Amino acid sequence: MLQNAVSDLRPPLTVPNSLDQDVPDIDYINEYLAENEHKELLKFLTCGSVDDGKSTLIGRLLYDTNKVYEDHLSALLRDSSRLGRTDSEPDFALLADGLKAEQEQGITIDVAYRYFTTRARKYIIADCPGHSQYTKNMATGASNCELAVILIDAQNGVLDQTRRHSLIVSLLGIRQLIVAVNKMDLVHYDAAIYERIQAEYLAFAKGLNFTSVSFVPVAAKFGENIVEPSVNMPWYEGATIVDLLEAAPVAVARDLGHFCMTVQRVHRPGTDFRGYSGTVTKGLIHPGDPIVVLPAGIETHVERIVTMDGDLDVAHAPQSVTLTISDQLGVNRGDTFVSPQYKPQIGNELFTNIVWMNNKPLVPNKSYLFKLGAKQLSGKVSTIVHRLNVNTQVLEPCDELAVNEIGLVHIDLQQPVVYEDYETDKTMGSLIVIDRITNETVGAGMINHNLSSGASNR
Question: Which residues contact residue 385 at a Cβ distance below 8 angstroms, ignoring those fewer than 6 apart?
Fold first, then answer.
């Protein structure tokens, strides 16, 4: 068979050269740390249907970029033998699947985070599970990523779970996509199959809000088109996975004029000090600058910017600092400091896209806790506007949302909150839904737009 004929072209598995080197001296370590400190960071996720090869692709990425320690490589070979998966190559998925249950079942259950670097960038990878019952885990992994790698098994083509993950990725504001058509070795590196899958996926994804969609045919098990081009697919002249990751634009916050910080903790160690701690999410702030406390709308001034290393002359995103202010105000956890020129939305009625995560369905008018940043308050879903069919992208009327379903709901909160549209600001536009009795997170939401006529667009 062609598969056997081309197998001799693959390089044998070897221990990376970097693992054979002597332990570097302290100067080399300091130079390495300094070099990597200033590299750009790209956070991306891998997702797709079950057994499409997500963990294998990550394992191969780590191995082919020389980011597998010698003891990890020894454990990989040992575990591959123990689990009976030694073929011509070890099972690279074991480098990403950390739970014992995952290794024994050969699937990903929880979101696994891995880290590696290239000469150009640093990367954080979220390896998300493929089973439909773990869709909530996938949504968690995608929430902070800037790019998604969707894997499709060349033998199966585009499946329902592929569409589900693509839709969630789009809803979560990820606009860059790499579609890796994996296991090309099992379809004899047939270009026609790759092109058919590419056309089918593009037909589905045209209604989603992706700004960039790149396709790569890969055989992750053998590292083909992962880091190095494949010799078995000469008909593909495009970039490898790593080439695309290194070229992907990285979003950098440039909104320096609109300061924003949500109070996460109020410090009062004595009668002579009251400070408000939080993370600056956008903009700059200096001592003496005016700020507005929301949702109350009271203006005051910053007196000091306090840190463990002493006071600062300026704070910027994403620093965590403690601010003192010039007036004695009733500022509480969850309140928001903003610059006077910044006008976020304030209201207690929201349209929100919800990914439901609980086996008990979401039903209207049941009381829940809603957490927006550091602010937690009571409320209810007054109306389920529609459910989104992930296969057809049709909006369907419904009375409840079952586990892993996605829908647009109207939330009625007992108090006004400060927020933004999720598309504008992921930090201020996201929320979680908490069951009041079990304290379990039962849903994740992306605010769509303001509904209440009484909300302020200050």
Answer: 351, 407, 408, 409, 410
